[in-house]
Amino acid sequence: MLRRLLARYSNERPSYLPSWREALLCLSLASLYLHKAWERVLKVQDLSFELGPPTYKPLCAIVCCVLALAAVFWVVGLIGRKLPRRFSGSAGRMLFPLIVAVPFLAAAKLDNHDAIRIILGLATVVVALGWTETAARCARAVAMLTLPLLPIQCLYAIKTTAGRSIAHNYLRQAQPQPGPVRPRIVWLIFDELDQTLSFTNRPADVRMPEFDRLRRESFYATDAEPPAIWTNRSIPALTTGRMVADARTREDADLDLVFTDSPAPHRWKAQSSIFQSARQLGRNTGLAGWYLPYCSVFGDHLDSCYTALDADATPSLRKVEYDRTLPFFKVMLNDLREEYVSLPFPEMALHGLLSEEYTFVRRQHEEAYLNIRERALSLASDPNYGLVLIHWPIPHPLGIYHRIERGPASGNQAGYLDNLELADETLGILRRTMEAAGTWDDSIVLVTGDHGFRPFLWSGLPGWNADDARSGALVVKNRVPFLLKIPHHEGGAVYTDHFNTVLTRELFMAMLTGQVQDERDVSKWIRTWTCARGFDKGAT
User: Fold this and answer.
1) Chain mean pLDDT for the chain
2) In this structure, what are the phi and psi dihedrals at residue 188, rounded to the nearest 5 degrees?
3) Which residue has the higher pLDDT, 199 or 293?
4) Per-residue pLDDT at 12 exceeds 90
5) Rounded to whole angstroms, how far apart are CA atoms 452 and 190?
6) CA atoms within 13 A on the CB side of 476
7) Alpha helices, DSSP H only, in 54-109?
8) pTM here?
9) SS3 445
10) How many CB atoms lie within 10 A of CB 384?
11) Relative to the CA of 90, which of 20, 234, 253, 399 has its CA 20 to 30 Å away?
12) What pLDDT score does 348 carry?
């Protein structure tokens, strides 16, 4: 039946319409040329961190782009048929293998080695010129063989979008059990807070009076190494007390963790955590953080939770969240613009599009900071909470604060050092709020970071400026501040030995159970723990 319909169409169609084989060939080529857009939509693990409900807009935009690009290929073919047959026939057979080869060359995982792409492209040209008929037939066969990928990708994207779980911003705001408990812990993790730029080799034009004040009053470690250079490994290590070798996002708004002492992946949600241990000691627990799906992971062990998910967690997520704000036609246009990177010279494209996306990300970053600050002030000043974790989105780029003007940043003039001063100002606001509520003196306060500054990651991206480049050159080790304020202890202590902050969970439990009570106890406990776990064998 289908064969008869296709034959009838071929016999009766006007000359300007493509044959059904030509139409399918154009669709297949168009889909191949949009391989980066397909790759982004099909990365469902990244998209479980979406800031809103799952949307079909990216899929619909790609399908429309495929149809539009297929129409372009058909028009090119129609024009070719109008040319003299001797020229169009031979030229078409030579060019067609190159047209089919381009998306495969672009998709090859060659780590942007353009020389290899050029060599492969030249090899394709040689084959097309030397064996024209054979190369044309092989290229046509390859293009038709990849055609089934189009409906398969559409169906898979529909299935995963419909069944995707979302890491909701809010979980609950339960009324904590009344009655303050002592000691209570307020754990402040400033994302990407670097020891070198905060203290050891701070640029002369950066002012951090609140950090300096807290350093004089606290147990201050000068050589504290975080568990990892990436947040999705470091934070799980800090909350579980186990070193994490790898972490992968799951479709159900959770992480699969591979611990250094166990090769099998484990769900983060299924692991024992500091919040569970604090609950067992009768503490109410609260958390406000960003980037990770805290409420989905720790919800059963938290009395209050807020998560501000990050629109820039991955390139796929950044594109999806930016697309939410755009009209449909603009999404299609951006998909086609992005496909310039599919040509064999990927460095020639996308800076303008990235700048647009990063402007959107900066707004989201500022909104996340303000929302977390509002909840942090409430949790930290409430004596009914015995353990509070605040994961701040600063001084992590992008810059949202201008340290000269002492206000919100606009454009790309603000960078990491500006956010570093914002972290200092934030610490001052939180301290004054806790002092007014009478909770500062009674609280154990730890100020630290999940990892240090990463110039290798940010260099060259929108928002990178000259100050970032100069300060980045000063950072040679992954180190974070470790400022531990002991309740009712005015004097401070400096600890210069190396240790890994993965010990934080066990240190907190020792403090909550009364085993560690002052700076001398902290020094002795860290030294004992470090030797017992083998972290004294050498620092990185």
Assistant:
1) 80
2) -110, 110
3) 199
4) no
5) 10
6) 5
7) 57-82, 85-107
8) 0.77
9) strand
10) 18
11) 20
12) 41
